[in-house]
Amino acid sequence: MARVSPVLMQRIAAASIGLALVVMALKYAAYSVTGSVAFLSDALESIVNLITAFIAWWAIRLSFKPADKDHPFGHHKAEYFSAVFEGVLIVVAALLIFQEAWQAWQAPRVLEEPSLGIAINAAATFINLGWALFLIRVGRRNRSPALAADGRHIMSDVVTSVGVIVGLALATATGWLFLDPLMAALVALNILREGYKVVTNSLSGLMDQAIDPVEEARVRDLISAHADGALEVHDLKTRLAGRAMFIEFHMVVPEAMTVGVAHDICDRIEDALLEAFEGARVLIHVEPEGEAKQTGVPVL
């Protein structure tokens, strides 16, 4: 899948809001016809999906704002704040679900129209599955923490919905009403796990985590292959800020080399990196040969 334009990314984020409304309505309908606390827990998670979809849309719009006087490096990290907030909301939803599950455990509820409720919930689950796969794909391809986090959260919702449907089907077949609150508690545990993953991944981005080791190896190879004329490249540093990738390093050249020739080498390296990593920010510090460290990236 090719990268999408900023406008299309914002439209995808807006579509998530509409889809979350549809799914939430379906899951609440499943709860209404059955009285199942497990379906209620699924509906509560859909409310979180709706709120986080709106926050993701806002964060993506903000992240595409160009750099300004107060934010000279851009607004890319706005998406990380969206993902952190999503993790917090997941925890709140899990606590509410635990409360409902405990009350239903103490006073088991007879399920009404379970077959209809399961069918409605299954329809909502299929919608979520398709959209989650799409969001994860687009989020990864376009380095969008907000879309990727939204997709992972919805995928977690899919997993819990399948568990709820299986649990309710067993409760209907066996008459074991305790399976209903038990499945609700398992839903809460699963979304807590997902919330933890969302928050930790986002905090890593806020802490300027280096790029993926595979991508960093590719950066090294490109620098090495296009630094002909230089003596050495060292102190390579990388970091991610949402969609933006920052690459900086020191390049050692012969003392007799002119500024113009050194600049040509820098342009050659930068062009190669930008072709491989769209939108990357490359900073090269040129040093005389006396600064060589005999370490770092070898020049081919």
From TrEMBL:
A Pfam match: Cation_efflux
Listed GO biological process terms: intracellular zinc ion homeostasis
GO molecular function: cadmium ion transmembrane transporter activity; ferrous iron transmembrane transporter activity; zinc efflux antiporter activity
Membrane-crossing residue ranges in chain numbering: 12-31, 37-60, 80-98, 118-138, 158-179
Topological relation to the membrane, as annotated: Multi-pass membrane protein
Xref: InterPro entries: Cation_efflux, Cation_efflux_CTD, Cation_efflux_CTD_sf, Cation_efflux_TM, Cation_efflux_TMD_sf, CDF_Transporter
Keyword flag Acetylation: no
Cellular compartment(s): Cell membrane
Cation efflux protein cytoplasmic domain span: 212-289
GO cellular component terms given for this protein: plasma membrane
Keywords (A to Z) from UniProt: Cell membrane, Membrane, Transmembrane, Transmembrane helix, Transport
Entry superkingdom: Bacteria
UniProt keyword Magnesium present: no
Domain called Cation efflux protein transmembrane: residue spans: 15-207
Main location: membrane
Family to which this protein belongs: Belongs to the cation diffusion facilitator (CDF) transporter (TC 2.A.4) family.
Alphabetized PANTHER family for the sequence: MITOCHONDRIAL METAL TRANSPORTER 1-RELATED
NCBIfam families: CDF (TIGR01297)
Name of the protein: Protein p34
Organism per entry: Aurantimonas marianensis
